[in-house]
Automatic annotation (TrEMBL):
Pfam families: PTCB-BRCT
Superkingdom of this protein's organism: Eukaryota
Domain (BRCT) ranges: 81-173
PANTHER family in alphabetical order: REGULATOR OF TY1 TRANSPOSITION PROTEIN 107
Protein name: BRCT domain-containing protein
Gene3D superfamilies in the record: BRCT domain (3.40.50.10190)
Source organism per UniProt: Suillus fuscotomentosus
InterPro entries (alphabetical): BRCT_dom, BRCT_dom_sf, CellCycle_DNARepair_Reg
Amino acid sequence: MALFNGVHYALSSSIQPGRHKELSALLDLHGAMSAPPPTHIIALAGSHIQGEYEGSLHVVSDMWYEGIDGQYVSERYYSPDPIMIFSGVVACATDLSQWDLEVLSAGITSLGGQWRTALTRDVTHLFALHKQSNKYQTAMYFAPYTGMSILTPHWFDDSVQLGCCVPEIPYLWPDPEVLAR
């Protein structure tokens, strides 16, 4: 059975034509159909489209498909709502205090993301304060293959403070600029 069997989608006009073609091709390849009535509306992340649709219609960001690794992923973690700044983020942390872990996990999940206690294949962001942990070493080894971002927790703080995901580059390990300041 196809991954998206029974999914009828409509793509929002907020999605650029090139990305529109790419998403349509990928969704169709996995069994979804661009046919009425839609079960899913796919919009550009950060769109104010959520309130326009009610009922059982799923409104997801264009990152929804990217979160899928051979298995169906819940729509609730891929909201295009601009308030859900961590939509599409699957986070984990290493060597942080219990207090910091609670703040990070609560903040990530309440703002649209997911939290893992273990470093699993679906983790997109690992928070670390230093290089000595096993999770850090494992993440750095596999990062070129998985695309995982290994960041200082400062990225979370600054993103929450500004209300959007800030660029990751100054927070990335192995040499985060924010720790050099």
